[in-house]
Each structure stands twice: as C-alpha cells, then as structure tokens.
Protein: Ornithine cyclodeaminase
Organism: Synergistes jonesii
Amino acid sequence: MDNRIEFIYLSEPDTIKLGIMDAPGWVDVCEEVFTLLAKGDYLMGGSNHNSHGMGIIFPKESPFPNMPVAGPDRRFFAMPAYLGGRFDVCGNKWYGSNAANTKRGLPRSILTVLINDKETGAPLCHMSANLLSATRTGAIPGVAVRHLARKDSKAVAVVGCGPINKSCFRHLITQAPQVEKVFCYDLFIEKAQALAEWIKKEYGIKAEAASELPDALKDADIVTVAASRIKPLHIESSWLKKGVLLMLTGPAKGDDKLWTESKIVYDNIKLHEAYVEEAYASGDVAGYYAGVIGGPLYTLIDQGKLAKLEDSTDIGNVILGKKPGRTNDEENIVFVACGMAVFDVACGFELYQRALKQGVGQKLLLWNEPYLK
Amino acid sequence: MDNRIEFIYLSEPDTIKLGIMDAPGWVDVCEEVFTLLAKGDYLMGGSNHNSHGMGIIFPKESPFPNMPVAGPDRRFFAMPAYLGGRFDVCGNKWYGSNAANTKRGLPRSILTVLINDKETGAPLCHMSANLLSATRTGAIPGVAVRHLARKDSKAVAVVGCGPINKSCFRHLITQAPQVEKVFCYDLFIEKAQALAEWIKKEYGIKAEAASELPDALKDADIVTVAASRIKPLHIESSWLKKGVLLMLTGPAKGDDKLWTESKIVYDNIKLHEAYVEEAYASGDVAGYYAGVIGGPLYTLIDQGKLAKLEDSTDIGNVILGKKPGRTNDEENIVFVACGMAVFDVACGFELYQRALKQGVGQKLLLWNEPYLK
C-alpha cells in the first residue's frame, strides 16, 4: 500500500494568486456556509459542537519575567471545525494576536489554517491565513447586505477603519453597487480619512471621514461596525436612520432600544447558545458577556426584554427562505456576526481546491512511509 | 523595516535526522518540563490555564451521510500551550485520530505541531509530529522510572504492546539498564510476542509474552500501561509485586486498594484539578471520569478514600526535591500521566533549535511583506 502523504503549503502571495482578495466570490462561499449552519451540517469544538475555540489566556501578571501577560488583543487561539456540504473536511485555524505587533510593522494577528482529511486526519493544505481570515470576516457582512439591506440603500457608514472593516466594505459593496456615499468613522480621524480616500480612488464613490459618530450614522442605510476593542463603542438608537441594516462584526454597546426596537438576525443561534452556556459555566456571567459581541443581547434576553435565542432568526434560514428576513423598508435590522471556524475551513478548502487545479503552492512531504504504525 | 517572515517545515524523516528517535535525551527534556510545571511557568488552554485542549467530538449518529460519526479513537484535537524556562514559546498540536486508519496502513493518529513566537504569533516551525508525540509520551515514564522506581528493579511489564508503549519502553529502559527481564502483555498475544522479540533483539534482554495479565505483573518492579481504550483494562492490587512502580500512560481500572494502598504521584496536579472542574461543569461527572486516566482516582478522592489533589504529590516537586518521592523499597507507587500540550511544545522547540543549528528542514515563506497590516 502506498502510505506516502504529501500536503500543500500556501504562502500569503500564493493565496493572493488564488484569488483570496477577489471580492465577489467569497460572499457566495460564506452564503453557502450559512445554509450549512442552518441545516446543522457542521461541528465546531467542544461537546456542544459550537465552541468558538480554545485560547491561551495570558494572566494579568506573572512571577515569571518571560511569561507573556495580558495586553490589548493579546492571545493565542485554536479554532477547530468540521464543515459538511461540498466541503466535507476538518480544519483548524491557529493564530497569535498582539496589538503591539502594529508597532513592529506586522499585522495585529498572524494566522495559519490547516485543512485535514476528515477520515484519516492527514493534512491536505497548510496556509498563511491573514488574508483568508480578513476575507471570510469581510464576506459575512456581504451576505447580510445581500439578504437584509434595503434594496435602495444609498449610503454606508464604516465604523472602525482598520483592515477588518476595510475587508467588510470591499465585500458588502459588491452587494450594493447602487451606493452613492460612504461615511468613515474611527477613533483616529486620520484612519477614517485614509479609508475615505481609498474608497474614492478605488470605487469612485463619494466618501468622507466623520469626526463624530452620529454624523457618520445619520444618513446611512448600511452600517458596518468593526472597531477596536480598546475603547468601547456606544451607539444610540436615535442616531440611526429608519430602515438601517446595522452589522456588528465587532462589539458595540447601545441603549436598550437599539436592540429591542430592531429585528435581530444572528449568524448562528447555536453558537450564541454556546456562548451563553459558557458564560454561565464561567461563574461570571456579566464579565463573560462584556467580552463578546452578543453580550448586550444576551443581557436583554436574560431580562426578558428580547426574544429568546431559540425563537430568534438566523441568516441561514433567511437564505433558505425558511424564516423572513427584511419584511419592509422601515424596520431596523441588527445583524450579529462572531468569528466561526467553519468559515475558515470553507475558505481554506476553497483555496486548497484552487491550488490543486492551478498547481499553485509548495508540496510538502509528511512521510514516505510512516515510521510508526 | 524588514517584515519578511519565514518558518521551517520538518517532515517525519527530518525529525528522525534531528534525533527524535534517539531515546536518552528526551527524558531530560521531559524532566525539565516537569520542573516548569511544578513551578507554574507554563500556560495551557482555557481560563484555568490547564485544559488538555479542544476537540471536534463526532456525534453518535448524524442525519448527514457524510458527517463523521463517533468511532473507536475517532476525534480531532487542538492542544495549545505556552511553555516558559529556556523554551519560552507558544505552540499548538493538532491531530486527527481514527482507529480505522490502521486498516489503511496508517498510524491511528496523524499529528502536526506548530511552534510560534510568543510575542508576535509568527510561526517558527511546523512539523510532522507522530514521532514527536510518541517520543514525548514515552519519555515521561522514563522520567518516572528515573525518580520513582526501585533502584534494583530487575523486571519490567509492558501492558499494551502498541507503538506508544513501545516508545515508553525505549525511554524507560535508558533509566533502568540493570533490568534483566521483560514481560509483554496485550489483548492480542501476537502483538505481545512481536514486542518481546523486538526487545530481545534490540536490547539483548530476556523478554516473553504473557497470555494472562497476572503472569505479566507478578515479578515486575516496573509496570508501564498504555493499552487500547477499546477494552477496559482491569488490574487487581494483589497481582502486583511489593514495591512496584505502576505507570499509567493509558487508562486502567482496579480494586480500591490498587489506589488507596499506593502512593499516587501525578504528572501535574493542576491539570487533574482542571479535569475534575470540567467533569463537574459537564453535568455528567461519572461519564466524564470514565473517559479520563485519572477517573478512578477522582472517584476515590470524591468519596474521601484518597488524599485530595491539592495535598498530593506531583513528580515536578519530587524532581525539585521539594516533595518526597520513593521513601522505601516496599511502597507501591502509581504514576499517572496524561497528555499535555507543554510536552509537545518542549519537544517541538527542541527540534526547531536543532533544525536551525543543523540546517535541516525546508524554509517556507509566510510573506515578504504583509499585504494587510
């Protein structure tokens, strides 16, 4: 029997060659993943099959001088998943994150994805996954805009102007080509200005930086939020235009009405149920809620002010036509999206398939014949 | 600034070239890890810093025909860790396991380890880790024999004759060169015979297969247990020789006396505390205990029949001379060792250092300059 195992390695330039930065297609891939999530054809980590993943959590202080301590965005995380449908593979995203990286000229996180055969566990494709991760995160609001935005949306607000929200914009604009105006807001006005300039140049759309958040929001039909976790973002419901689609890729707080007078559409209800379960298991529910995007929603659900998760709408069932999405142009919709390993597996598998077809990447030998059986 | 990132890839043959199968040295590496565990200079996954890792757990049945379902030894697992001391790196072991692999001529598990810079998260070395994993698992009983076995140990029993216990034997025998006789026991006598033949040939030590477990145990001063989880192994205390060192790398059950009349030495008390914590959080304590090596001990501790974990002995403190190990030749000692990601990180780092020095492995480009910052 031939037991030789080889797998493919893709550098970041390889993933670019394979189209990771070509926006439209990834919205389709992510839409497909949402339908698999709604059907239940996936497994993420843990006994509830829906854990976000497992991190190395650095302590606030340590008696060991070399041990990393807690800092902004500082963590390591492993995110394993199986995804069904045409993907039908397992994989793991593994990354280290540290806000201090940006001072070194490096991205905040450095990520790789490994895709594995579901039967044998053999590696199929290992890849640099910074672009993959930004793309899958950005394509998800693209899916939301396709299904939940007003068809006549004319203005977009980009709240938080880092690489993640830039990716969100790149994807959502493919779904709303009629948009005429973009408002950019960031804690640092220069970042908002830079993104506005880039949008004008790249897309020929009017774009401007807003120095106050309400100014960025007041005319926006589509709002994409992916701001740094360093300073909490607060959004008042009165700042929003009627009929808005507010998409949270990063955390935001707001008055109760922001949530209770909107239709909430979740990325995956079971994931949020798992978050709530983990919050209660942690013994510090409020503390746990404070650290996750859905926290403000879970708090209102616990208080009976918002529909229970099991009675709520997920985008997968909207795509499948099993639950209503937007029913009129006046309703505000909040779309909540957390990172999920299944999207990394989907996009990683897609790149792997393209690499096979196009002969891109480096073949690596695991073994010619396993030394131990 | 030069932001080019490269890392090293090591195939299984590369890891052999770098000495992964050269037994004596890895016992020293693992001994070093135990002292770091005792000092607390490490972080594994989760908020308790001591989780074994996070798995994809396959369901017993699935409505999706392609979805993997539960089977013998079938799982995927991510095991992240930071390890201090001279290692001072992060890393993750990621593997898929499936007993059916052996029918395909493949090892039961296929494993890789990725070692990362603790500050930036950048990958340093990705490697085939089947041999690494077998070596770190085998070297741990080597450390136990060094510190806990009778100095005049003459006979060894190998209970379970698969690749893991073969690795255990390869390492422990370096610490007990005076051994004159080895008894091999396995559910399948042919496997026991094959291991006995190999030991005779490789080490020139008398070795024989025992068809009954008590026969294998009755004269053994050192017992290494790493049997398949498929059929539970039962050991009666009366079958053991006085003064034995019984080392559990895999699960075993026994009468209460097996545990209560032995001195228990743990690999890492905090890990076992985390297992107990996770068992209680799972809502099915007995079910959880049944699946882990320490289960029979935790049950007796809960019943008040065995010393609490916090009052127990760990091998790291024995090595450091802070807790007594063996105090006389009559006491029975049970050493309990579970897999820990810190050992993978330690051995992975050691291979990475050797690869740098010896120029072994393949350099892989992550990026010349990160496309997104």
In short: Residues 150 and 344 of chain B are 29 Å apart (CA to CA).
